[in-house]
From TrEMBL:
InterPro entries: Hedgehog/Intein_dom, Hint_dom_sf, Serralysin-like_metalloprot_C. It comes from the Bacteria. Signal peptide: none annotated. Residues 120-266 form the Hedgehog/Intein (Hint) domain. It comes from Ruegeria intermedia. Gene3D superfamilies: 2.160.20.160. This is Hint domain-containing protein.
Length: 330
């Protein structure tokens, strides 16, 4: 089975492909659920492969771009460069080549991958802007209104959380949050120190973004911002509790005044959630069970190399991530 030339989104559910699954050229997103596949080959672009309850009798190979392999929580990975680790909810990881043992017990060989993504989320204590002012995220409940940038005040459809101890963070440093020091984004934001998971995306609004992408605003994962002053992985936290916030659509909300994203129900996000949380979300949005996203991203999400170039240009030119004319949510 082969994808087309150009950008493809391919979802395979409850199927058997005895031969090779080939992605096309350019940037492809491939999701395989409840299926049996012979071999998987990605193309030459920046591709994303997500496996869910799937058996692969051969091997999996990325391509020449920056490729992402999202695996089920509980998968044990043995990577030639990064050693042995277990995939957990809320974590990201780096890859090169090696093997992984699925929770089902099957061992699969992979090569030519660069990373895997976890679910984006806020930490306990972060204050989100509501019609009644900033409210700590742990005090919010489904049905309560949260202020968004373009849809007005929107009701929360689902909120979930998961805690990790200091010992768990020491055992898996990828669980440590990113700390964004007050004012580090520009325009005086965030108003207080903000802690988010590594893959949680922050909004960047700047002339540099417009020159690169043809629009002022894009979403960039927090871990990509750590090259900038005042933004770093805080591995000294005495444990962390991550919260996930879901609306009818992917939204831009305001955490400590800074524009950032709600949970985006793409396949990798749902894949990284625990079974109970995933079942709750699917009960609210049953269309997600078939691989259908609730909505498109609230803003453009550049590819990995573009993200790195954007941040490098901001650093080189000493320009803030939020231009001084940013006014929403402050």
């Amino acid at each position: 089975m082969r994808g087309n030339a150009g950008i493809d989104t391919l979802t395979i559910v409850n199927s058997t492909i005895g031969g090779r699954l080939n992605a096309g050229r350019d940037d492809d997103t491939v999701t395989v659920q409840g299926s049996t596949i012979g071999n998987i080959r990605l193309g030459t672009g920046n591709d994303t492969l997500t496996l869910q309850a799937t058996s692969v009798s051969g091997d999996i190979r990325g391509g020449s771009g920056t490729d992402t392999l999202n695996l089920p929580a509980g998968t044990v990975v043995t990577d030639s460069s990064f050693g042995t680790f277990t995939v957990v909810d809320g974590a990201s990881y780096s890859l090169t080549s090696g093997t992984f043992a699925l929770p089902s017990g099957q061992t699969i060989t992979y090569s030519q991958f660069e990373n895997g993504s976890g679910v984006p989320c806020f930490t306990r204590g972060v204050r989100l802007l509501t019609p009644h002012g900033p409210v700590p995220i742990q005090n919010l409940r489904p049905g309560q209104l949260v202020r968004t940038d373009s849809g007005g005040d929107q009701p929360i459809r689902w909120i979930g959380c998961r805690a990790f101890s200091a010992a768990e963070i020491r055992a898996n440093p990828r669980l440590a949050p990113v700390r964004i020091v007050a004012g580090a984004l520009g325009a005086g934001l965030p108003a207080r120190d903000l802690l988010v998971s590594r893959q949680h995306r922050m909004l960047v609004q700047s002339p540099i973004a417009r020159r690169m992408f043809g629009q002022d605003q894009v979403l960039i994962p927090a871990i990509k911002l750590t090259a900038l002053p005042g933004i770093f992985v805080d591995d000294a936290v005495p444990g962390v509790e991550y919260f996930h916030l879901l609306f009818d659509q992917h939204r831009i909300v305001f955490a400590e005044g800074a524009p950032t994203e709600s949970l985006f129900t793409g396949p990798e996000a749902l894949r990284s959630l625990g079974a109970e949380a995933r079942e709750e979300i699917l009960a609210i949005f049953p269309q997600l069970a078939g691989g259908v996203q609730v909505s498109n991203p609230a803003r453009t999400i550049p590819r990995g190399r573009q993200q790195a170039r954007l941040i490098a240009r901001h650093l080189r030119n000493a320009k803030p991530l939020l231009a001084e004319n940013w006014g929403a949510g402050t």
